[in-house]
Amino acid sequence: MTYSIVARDPATGQLGVGSQSHFFGVGRVVGWVASGVGAAATQAFVNVGYGPASLDALARGLPAQEVVDTVTATDELRGYRQLGVVDACGTAASFTGESCAPAAGGLVGDGVAVQGNMLGSERVWPAMLEAYQSSGGDLADRLLAALAAAEEAGGDVRGSQSAVLKVMSGERSDTPWAETVVDIRVDDHPDPVGELARLLPRQRAFDLIGGVIFAPGLTIGPYRRVPPELLAEKLTGLAEAAELLGAGNREADFWRALLLARSGDREAARALFDDLFSARPQLRGFLAGIAPLGFLDDVEEYL
Q1: How far is 142 from 18, CA to CA, in rounded Å?
Q2: To the nearest 5 percent, what fractions of the chain are helix, strand and coil?
Q3: What is the reported pTM?
Q4: What's the burial of 110, exposed, middle or buried (CB within 10 Å: 0-12/13-18/19+)?
Q5: Which of 30, 52, 195, 278 is most buried as measured by Cβ atoms within 10 A of its Cβ?
Q6: What tens digit of pLDDT does each residue of 160-211 get?
Q7: DSSP assignment, residue 120?
Q8: Rounded to whole angstroms, what are the CA distances from 70 to 24, 36, 63, 252?
Protein backbone atom coordinates (compact mmCIF):
# COMPACT_ATOMS: atom_id res chain seq x y z
CA MET A 1 0.00 0.00 0.00
CA THR A 2 2.09 2.84 -1.33
CA TYR A 3 3.01 4.93 -4.33
CA SER A 4 6.19 4.75 -6.39
CA ILE A 5 8.00 5.94 -9.48
CA VAL A 6 10.70 4.29 -11.59
CA ALA A 7 12.50 6.25 -14.28
CA ARG A 8 15.48 6.55 -16.62
CA ASP A 9 17.12 9.89 -17.41
CA PRO A 10 17.73 10.00 -21.18
CA ALA A 11 20.54 12.54 -20.82
CA THR A 12 22.68 10.53 -18.40
CA GLY A 13 21.26 7.01 -18.57
CA GLN A 14 20.79 7.08 -14.80
CA LEU A 15 18.11 4.76 -13.42
CA GLY A 16 16.13 5.43 -10.26
CA VAL A 17 13.22 4.66 -7.99
CA GLY A 18 11.31 6.66 -5.39
CA SER A 19 8.54 5.55 -3.06
CA GLN A 20 6.60 6.53 0.05
CA SER A 21 4.27 4.50 2.25
CA HIS A 22 2.57 4.33 5.62
CA PHE A 23 4.71 1.28 6.34
CA PHE A 24 7.94 0.91 8.26
CA GLY A 25 11.05 0.81 6.05
CA VAL A 26 9.47 0.84 2.61
CA GLY A 27 12.97 0.99 1.14
CA ARG A 28 13.61 -2.57 2.29
CA VAL A 29 11.04 -4.05 -0.08
CA VAL A 30 9.75 -1.73 -2.79
CA GLY A 31 12.64 -0.26 -4.78
CA TRP A 32 15.13 -2.28 -6.86
CA VAL A 33 17.74 -0.73 -9.17
CA ALA A 34 20.75 -2.12 -11.03
CA SER A 35 23.18 0.18 -12.84
CA GLY A 36 22.92 -0.10 -16.60
CA VAL A 37 20.11 -2.65 -16.26
CA GLY A 38 16.89 -1.06 -15.01
CA ALA A 39 14.66 -0.31 -12.05
CA ALA A 40 11.59 -1.92 -10.54
CA ALA A 41 9.05 -1.05 -7.84
CA THR A 42 7.04 -3.89 -6.32
CA GLN A 43 4.15 -3.07 -3.99
CA ALA A 44 0.50 -3.64 -2.95
CA PHE A 45 0.40 -6.73 -0.70
CA VAL A 46 3.97 -6.81 -1.90
CA ASN A 47 5.66 -9.82 -3.42
CA VAL A 48 9.26 -8.83 -2.71
CA GLY A 49 10.46 -11.45 -5.19
CA TYR A 50 9.13 -9.32 -8.03
CA GLY A 51 12.08 -6.97 -7.46
CA PRO A 52 15.05 -9.29 -8.02
CA ALA A 53 13.09 -11.28 -10.61
CA SER A 54 12.51 -8.10 -12.61
CA LEU A 55 16.19 -7.12 -12.47
CA ASP A 56 17.23 -10.63 -13.53
CA ALA A 57 14.89 -10.48 -16.53
CA LEU A 58 16.08 -6.98 -17.45
CA ALA A 59 19.70 -8.15 -17.26
CA ARG A 60 18.85 -10.88 -19.78
CA GLY A 61 17.65 -8.20 -22.19
CA LEU A 62 13.88 -8.45 -21.81
CA PRO A 63 12.06 -5.13 -22.39
CA ALA A 64 10.01 -3.61 -19.57
CA GLN A 65 6.56 -4.80 -20.63
CA GLU A 66 7.77 -8.35 -21.20
CA VAL A 67 9.42 -8.28 -17.78
CA VAL A 68 6.15 -7.26 -16.13
CA ASP A 69 4.20 -9.91 -18.02
CA THR A 70 6.73 -12.62 -17.19
CA VAL A 71 7.13 -11.80 -13.51
CA THR A 72 3.40 -11.55 -12.78
CA ALA A 73 2.29 -14.50 -14.94
CA THR A 74 2.93 -17.29 -12.44
CA ASP A 75 1.72 -15.45 -9.32
CA GLU A 76 -1.74 -16.63 -8.27
CA LEU A 77 -2.13 -13.45 -6.19
CA ARG A 78 -1.09 -11.05 -8.96
CA GLY A 79 -4.49 -9.41 -8.74
CA TYR A 80 -3.38 -7.89 -5.44
CA ARG A 81 0.01 -6.68 -6.71
CA GLN A 82 1.50 -3.67 -8.44
CA LEU A 83 4.74 -3.53 -10.40
CA GLY A 84 6.50 -0.71 -12.21
CA VAL A 85 9.53 -1.36 -14.42
CA VAL A 86 11.85 0.76 -16.56
CA ASP A 87 14.66 -0.72 -18.64
CA ALA A 88 18.05 0.62 -19.71
CA CYS A 89 16.61 1.72 -23.07
CA GLY A 90 13.99 3.88 -21.35
CA THR A 91 10.90 1.81 -22.09
CA ALA A 92 8.57 1.47 -19.10
CA ALA A 93 5.60 -0.58 -17.97
CA SER A 94 3.20 -0.47 -15.03
CA PHE A 95 0.91 -3.22 -13.74
CA THR A 96 -2.02 -2.85 -11.32
CA GLY A 97 -3.94 -5.98 -10.34
CA GLU A 98 -7.73 -5.87 -10.41
CA SER A 99 -7.96 -6.50 -6.64
CA CYS A 100 -5.66 -3.68 -5.48
CA ALA A 101 -7.19 -1.49 -2.79
CA PRO A 102 -8.57 1.79 -4.17
CA ALA A 103 -7.65 4.35 -5.11
CA ALA A 104 -5.22 2.40 -7.27
CA GLY A 105 -3.71 2.78 -10.72
CA GLY A 106 -0.67 3.59 -12.77
CA LEU A 107 0.59 5.46 -15.81
CA VAL A 108 3.52 5.18 -18.19
CA GLY A 109 5.43 7.98 -19.89
CA ASP A 110 8.64 8.27 -21.84
CA GLY A 111 11.18 6.50 -19.62
CA VAL A 112 8.98 6.57 -16.53
CA ALA A 113 6.27 4.53 -14.78
CA VAL A 114 4.20 5.63 -11.78
CA GLN A 115 1.80 3.57 -9.69
CA GLY A 116 0.02 3.58 -6.36
CA ASN A 117 -2.70 1.91 -4.34
CA MET A 118 -4.70 2.65 -1.20
CA LEU A 119 -4.29 6.33 -2.02
CA GLY A 120 -6.09 9.44 -0.88
CA SER A 121 -7.33 10.26 -4.38
CA GLU A 122 -7.14 9.20 -8.00
CA ARG A 123 -5.07 12.32 -8.68
CA VAL A 124 -1.99 10.89 -7.00
CA TRP A 125 -0.40 8.93 -9.83
CA PRO A 126 -1.23 11.49 -12.58
CA ALA A 127 0.23 14.21 -10.34
CA MET A 128 3.43 12.19 -9.97
CA LEU A 129 3.83 11.83 -13.71
CA GLU A 130 3.09 15.50 -14.36
CA ALA A 131 5.59 16.65 -11.74
CA TYR A 132 8.30 14.34 -12.99
CA GLN A 133 7.87 15.44 -16.59
CA SER A 134 7.72 19.16 -15.81
CA SER A 135 10.47 19.43 -13.16
CA GLY A 136 14.06 20.47 -13.69
CA GLY A 137 17.26 19.19 -12.14
CA ASP A 138 18.83 15.76 -12.27
CA LEU A 139 17.02 12.44 -11.97
CA ALA A 140 17.00 12.48 -8.16
CA ASP A 141 15.48 15.98 -8.13
CA ARG A 142 12.75 14.93 -10.53
CA LEU A 143 11.92 11.75 -8.64
CA LEU A 144 11.69 13.76 -5.44
CA ALA A 145 9.41 16.29 -7.15
CA ALA A 146 7.12 13.41 -8.15
CA LEU A 147 6.93 12.14 -4.57
CA ALA A 148 6.16 15.63 -3.26
CA ALA A 149 3.38 16.00 -5.85
CA ALA A 150 1.92 12.66 -4.80
CA GLU A 151 1.74 13.84 -1.19
CA GLU A 152 0.09 17.09 -2.26
CA ALA A 153 -2.51 15.16 -4.26
CA GLY A 154 -3.51 12.95 -1.32
CA GLY A 155 -0.69 10.46 -0.82
CA ASP A 156 -1.23 7.20 1.04
CA VAL A 157 -4.73 7.34 2.52
CA ARG A 158 -3.35 6.07 5.85
CA GLY A 159 -0.73 8.84 6.10
CA SER A 160 3.07 8.96 5.84
CA GLN A 161 5.80 6.92 7.48
CA SER A 162 8.73 5.88 5.28
CA ALA A 163 10.30 6.72 1.93
CA VAL A 164 13.19 5.77 -0.33
CA LEU A 165 15.11 7.50 -3.10
CA LYS A 166 17.71 5.56 -5.06
CA VAL A 167 19.57 6.40 -8.28
CA MET A 168 22.23 4.34 -10.06
CA SER A 169 24.38 5.19 -13.04
CA GLY A 170 23.58 3.99 -16.53
CA GLU A 171 26.76 1.88 -16.75
CA ARG A 172 26.89 -1.84 -16.15
CA SER A 173 29.78 -2.63 -13.88
CA ASP A 174 31.61 -5.41 -12.07
CA THR A 175 31.60 -3.07 -9.05
CA PRO A 176 27.94 -1.99 -8.91
CA TRP A 177 28.38 -0.38 -5.49
CA ALA A 178 30.59 2.21 -7.19
CA GLU A 179 27.72 3.15 -9.54
CA THR A 180 25.44 4.43 -6.75
CA VAL A 181 24.51 8.07 -7.30
CA VAL A 182 21.88 8.52 -4.56
CA ASP A 183 20.82 6.06 -1.87
CA ILE A 184 18.64 7.52 0.88
CA ARG A 185 16.10 5.77 3.10
CA VAL A 186 13.79 7.22 5.72
CA ASP A 187 12.34 4.33 7.69
CA ASP A 188 10.10 6.11 10.23
CA HIS A 189 9.25 9.82 10.09
CA PRO A 190 6.09 11.96 10.14
CA ASP A 191 7.16 13.62 6.87
CA PRO A 192 9.40 11.12 5.07
CA VAL A 193 9.29 12.88 1.68
CA GLY A 194 10.25 16.15 3.34
CA GLU A 195 13.05 14.31 5.11
CA LEU A 196 14.31 12.97 1.77
CA ALA A 197 14.41 16.57 0.55
CA ARG A 198 16.48 17.54 3.60
CA LEU A 199 18.89 14.62 3.23
CA LEU A 200 19.51 14.79 -0.53
CA PRO A 201 21.72 17.92 -0.42
CA ARG A 202 23.58 16.44 2.55
CA GLN A 203 24.43 13.32 0.59
CA ARG A 204 25.66 15.53 -2.23
CA ALA A 205 27.79 17.48 0.25
CA PHE A 206 29.44 14.35 1.59
CA ASP A 207 29.99 13.10 -1.96
CA LEU A 208 31.99 16.29 -2.53
CA ILE A 209 33.94 15.70 0.69
CA GLY A 210 34.64 12.09 -0.29
CA GLY A 211 35.88 13.28 -3.67
CA VAL A 212 38.61 15.19 -1.84
CA ILE A 213 39.53 12.66 0.85
CA PHE A 214 39.95 9.83 -1.65
CA ALA A 215 41.55 11.82 -4.47
CA PRO A 216 45.17 10.59 -4.87
CA GLY A 217 47.69 12.95 -3.32
CA LEU A 218 45.24 15.55 -2.10
CA THR A 219 44.86 14.75 1.60
CA ILE A 220 46.88 11.59 2.30
CA GLY A 221 50.54 10.95 1.56
CA PRO A 222 53.03 13.21 -0.24
CA TYR A 223 51.54 16.30 -1.87
CA ARG A 224 53.28 16.12 -5.24
CA ARG A 225 52.39 16.86 -8.83
CA VAL A 226 48.87 17.98 -7.95
CA PRO A 227 47.60 20.11 -10.85
CA PRO A 228 46.53 23.62 -9.77
CA GLU A 229 43.21 23.21 -11.57
CA LEU A 230 42.46 20.06 -9.53
CA LEU A 231 43.25 21.90 -6.31
CA ALA A 232 40.96 24.78 -7.29
CA GLU A 233 38.19 22.36 -8.26
CA LYS A 234 38.35 20.48 -4.95
CA LEU A 235 38.54 23.62 -2.82
CA THR A 236 35.50 24.97 -4.64
CA GLY A 237 33.69 21.68 -4.11
CA LEU A 238 34.44 21.76 -0.38
CA ALA A 239 33.15 25.32 -0.16
CA GLU A 240 29.94 24.19 -1.87
CA ALA A 241 29.70 21.24 0.52
CA ALA A 242 30.10 23.55 3.52
CA GLU A 243 27.26 25.71 2.24
CA LEU A 244 25.02 22.69 1.70
CA LEU A 245 25.71 21.38 5.21
CA GLY A 246 25.20 24.72 6.95
CA ALA A 247 26.89 26.22 9.98
CA GLY A 248 26.06 23.31 12.27
CA ASN A 249 28.23 20.80 10.39
CA ARG A 250 31.91 21.70 9.91
CA GLU A 251 33.08 18.51 8.21
CA ALA A 252 33.69 20.15 4.83
CA ASP A 253 35.46 23.10 6.46
CA PHE A 254 37.87 20.78 8.27
CA TRP A 255 38.99 19.07 5.07
CA ARG A 256 39.15 22.41 3.27
CA ALA A 257 41.49 23.74 5.98
CA LEU A 258 43.62 20.60 5.71
CA LEU A 259 43.82 20.90 1.94
CA LEU A 260 44.75 24.58 2.20
CA ALA A 261 47.54 23.67 4.62
CA ARG A 262 48.85 20.87 2.41
CA SER A 263 48.79 23.13 -0.65
CA GLY A 264 50.90 25.79 1.09
CA ASP A 265 48.23 28.43 1.74
CA ARG A 266 49.16 28.58 5.42
CA GLU A 267 47.50 31.88 6.23
CA ALA A 268 44.08 30.74 4.98
CA ALA A 269 44.54 27.34 6.64
CA ARG A 270 45.43 28.90 10.02
CA ALA A 271 42.42 31.22 9.90
CA LEU A 272 40.03 28.38 9.10
CA PHE A 273 41.56 26.00 11.67
CA ASP A 274 41.35 28.72 14.34
CA ASP A 275 37.67 29.18 13.54
CA LEU A 276 37.08 25.42 13.63
CA PHE A 277 38.91 24.95 16.95
CA SER A 278 36.91 27.78 18.50
CA ALA A 279 33.63 26.22 17.35
CA ARG A 280 34.62 22.64 18.28
CA PRO A 281 37.77 22.29 20.39
CA GLN A 282 37.80 18.50 19.90
CA LEU A 283 38.87 19.04 16.29
CA ARG A 284 42.29 20.17 17.53
CA GLY A 285 42.91 16.69 18.93
CA PHE A 286 41.51 15.10 15.79
CA LEU A 287 43.97 17.02 13.62
CA ALA A 288 46.85 16.13 15.96
CA GLY A 289 45.82 12.46 15.78
CA ILE A 290 45.59 12.10 12.00
CA ALA A 291 48.54 14.34 11.07
CA PRO A 292 51.26 11.68 11.62
CA LEU A 293 49.25 9.16 9.60
CA GLY A 294 50.33 10.95 6.43
CA PHE A 295 47.86 13.84 6.45
CA LEU A 296 49.99 16.83 7.49
CA ASP A 297 53.72 17.19 8.22
CA ASP A 298 53.83 20.67 9.80
CA VAL A 299 50.81 20.17 12.07
CA GLU A 300 52.30 22.09 15.02
CA GLU A 301 51.98 25.30 13.05
CA TYR A 302 48.21 24.91 13.10
CA LEU A 303 47.72 23.45 16.57
Answers
A1: 10
A2: 45, 20, 35
A3: 0.93
A4: exposed
A5: 30
A6: 999 999 999 999 999 999 999 999 999 999 999 999 999 999 999 999 999 9
A7: S
A8: 29, 20, 11, 48
